[in-house]
Amino acid sequence: MNKNILEMRNITKTFPGVKALDNVNFQVEKGEIHCLVGENGAGKSTLMKVLSGVYPHGEYSGDIVLNGEVQKFQGISDSEKAGIAIIYQELALIPELPVYENIFLGHELTKGKMIDWNETIKRAGEMLKKVKLNNVNPATKIKDLGVGKQQLVEIAKALSKDVKLLILDEPTAALNEDDSQNLLMLLRELKEQGVTSIMISHKLKEVLAIADTVTVLRDGQTICSLSAVKGEISESIIIKHMVGREIDNIFPSRDKKDFGDIVLEVRDWHAYNPELGRDILNGLDFNVRKGEIVGIAGLMGAGRTELAHSIFGNPADYKIKGDLFVMGQKKKFKNPNDAIKAGIAYVTEDRKGNGLILIDDIKQNITIANLKSLTKQGIVNSNEEIKAANHYKSSLNIKAPSVEQKVGNLSGGNQQKVSLGKWLFVSPKVLILDEPTRGIDVGAKFEIYTLMNKLVDQGMSIIMISSELPEILGMSDRIYVVSGGKIAGELLSTEATQEKIMEMATN
Q: What are the backbone dihedrals phi and psi of residue 8, each rounded to the nearest 5 degrees, phi first?
């Protein structure tokens, strides 16, 4: 008897100039949690889009065999009818609609020719209980739920379609620790109920905690499948197969730590949010010196990103009180352009929403923040623009056929490098990195860490906001811990531990 619910045989998928999948073979057993890992651009999401019908039969070669039958999905609706549901990192929910409408959107419950709203609300409540959202009213609008609960609503939506094979693409990327653990616990419970799950994740600790099997893709090819039962799964083995080499230390060492004068400083910094009707930052004092990496740690909602926004000049969002100094000179930024002129650059945590123009190419995204340097009498020098873009494509190792490649077609790690290139082209004195490695793989992380070290060695200053404590500890020279909109403590890298940071963050 065939134990596999799914077999994907010799799947090949090409895009213009790129072979995204090259004869990939992938098998999933019934009732298991199967994790799919690999560097950005390895082909994980593409493989799942083939499986779910996003790329219809005819746009790829190879076979999809589900429960022993060859499938030729022409769209997502076909895969859903077969019992497959896919949940992307960017949730497909409508914020203004209530939970019950979102759960049954596209497969409404009807009585005659009319939607049966009473049955819809009742069934939505049942689905919410299945995903441990017993306390959520089905009439609540999606926009009024936190990201973690929205993720669970997506799973409730999948369960309402009688899903047999659940695919989750980076499900915990935007979740805090508690929400992430709740989601993993739910996947285990769904497994007991007979639901098979495929999870794409870069968080290897979560993979180790939950996976029955791990399949590694690299450069569009299947490298191996590892079994938990056989004791084949470990972090070092996964990393070795992912990157094709061993990474002994994911945080590259930095010999030179020659800090100069204070480059940026804020004193008694307050930010009032008119929508909330309160201060979200309350009298912060902090600074960063030339050639230093300063880490900003804290729990979600502590005010870390708000600190970056307020420094970068977003008066429309906040009313600011306090003093800001750049190179010892007092500054007041009316908008981000003022901050850029003063030598401050900000790489946002939301690279797809606010950091990049996905429909434009690499060249346009890299040069947009400093286009004036390539302009004479209102005309952009296209040759110089291409030259600048190619410089950063090469120096940042952006994997793409050319700088004419659309950014929306790049992997997450390469998109992040484009976002970095955009701000490096401005030649900032201070680079603020907000979650610089969120949603990217271990190999791309190492490249970004190496670049950070190189930049500070050259005299740049970096402020790094991160939810990953190993990253904060591994890369920072000095750490500020934010809690409740205040600085809860300051630690040198030599004295900092995860326990000390968490103690400050939770006070």
A: -110, 120
Q: Which residues pair with 35 in a beta bridge?
A: 199, 214
pTM of the model: 0.62
pLDDT in tens, 126-158: 999 888 888 899 999 998 888 788 888 988 888
- Give the span between the Cα atoms of 230 and 118, in whole angstroms: 49
Domains of the chain by start residue, with CATH: 4-243 (3.40.50.300), 251-343+428-507 (3.40.50.300), 356-426 (no CATH)
Q: Within 13 A of 75's CA, how many CA atoms are on the CB side?
A: 1
| Residue of 15 and 453 predicted with greater confidence | 453
The 10s digit of each residue's pLDDT in 391-445 is: 989 888 888 888 999 988 887 778 888 988 888 888 899 999 998 887 777 777 8
Measured in degrees and rounded to the nearest 5, phi and psi for residue 170 equal 50, 55
Distance CA(49)–CA(358), nearest Å, equals: 19
User: Quick check: 436 and 464 in contact, CB under 8 A?
Assistant: yes
Distance between CA atoms of residues 33 and 199, nearest Å: 7
Coil/strand/helix, residue 112: coil
CA distance 365 to 388: 11
| Rounded Cα–Cα distance for residues 484 and 242 (Å) | 39
